[in-house]
Amino acid sequence: MKKALLLGMFTLVSFNAYAQEDNTDYELRTDEKYGYIVDKGGKKTEGIVRLNGDAMNPWNNQKKVKFIAVSDIDKSKKKQKFKTLDSDDIKEYVAFDENNNERHFEMIKYTNTKEGFNTATGGLSGNIKAFNNLTKSTQFAEVVKDGKIKVYKLYGYPTTFSAGGQIALAEKETERMRNSPSYIYSKKGGKIEELTLAKAKMIIADCSYAKGKLTSGSYASLKNDEKKRSGLGKLIKSQIDDVMSNVPEIVEEVITDYNENCK
To answer: What are the boundaries of the signal sequence (predicted)?
Structure first.
């Protein structure tokens, strides 16, 4: 009963915060660039797209986005009313962040079980983190590499509650999640899976060009550092490979090469 009550209170607080944000007006910037949204029917609408997250809370970009269509902008008003859209409303959006960098997000069906079961805190704090991740099966993810192998960056969701001795651990874990997103991929529109060193080797093996470079050791990001590996003790080989691999480097070197040179 207590667990049900706590869950109900948590849901109610989240709902109220969401509803209040829908009524917020935003002031336009002088150098505002137009992005776009794509609705469930595939219709593309240009307008101003405001990211919901920032460097401190990048996971918020995966929940929802603020949007106003070009046709709805009233230039006689200082502030404009933006709509709040989530993955139930649209399947894609492109926005420009505060540095005018283009950011592309797509709706995906994927549950981040790795973060759901990986928590440094126990008790209510850890349970809430697990809940936050395991209940999100449909969300936005940022496209970092497009092509035959499409790669997304996906952040885990931190706990929204900690107390006592859990506070320091929760803050440390949130910082880790902020700096260490997961990279997931879909090959030719197939199932979305986590991208690891082992997976990278497997998904490029159907291309003789990429397989040849892998066999000859031409991909620096797929090489193993034996000195570092020896210091990881009794971890099994696949675990060591995952710990030592730099997935962003694999994306930039290997996946880019595959997309550009393999059919």
So the answer is: 1-19
Q: How far apart are CA 42 and CA 40, in angstroms?
A: 5
**Vertex 20: Cα angle to 162 and 55 (nearest 5):** 55
pLDDT per residue as tens digits for the range 48-74: 999 999 999 999 999 999 999 999 999
Phi, psi of 183 (to 5 degrees): -120, 125
- 56, 76, 105 - which closes a domain: 105
Residue 143: domain span: 110-195
* pTM for this entry: 0.83
Is 241's pLDDT higher than 80?
no
Q: Where among 73, 89, 105 does a domain terminate?
A: 105
In a domain, 183, yes or no: yes
Long-range Cβ pairs for the range 94-97 (8 Å, 24+): 94/35, 94/36, 94/37, 94/49, 95/35, 95/49, 95/50, 95/51, 95/65, 96/33, 96/35, 96/49, 97/51
Residue 83 and residue 61 in one domain: yes
**CB within 8 Å of 141: residues ≥ 6 apart:** 62, 105, 106, 108, 110, 152, 153, 154, 184
200 part of a folded domain: no
Whether pLDDT at 174 is above 80: yes
* Average pLDDT score over residue span 189-216: 97
> Looking at residue 54, what is its pLDDT?
95
Beta-bridged to residue 44, according to DSSP, are 38
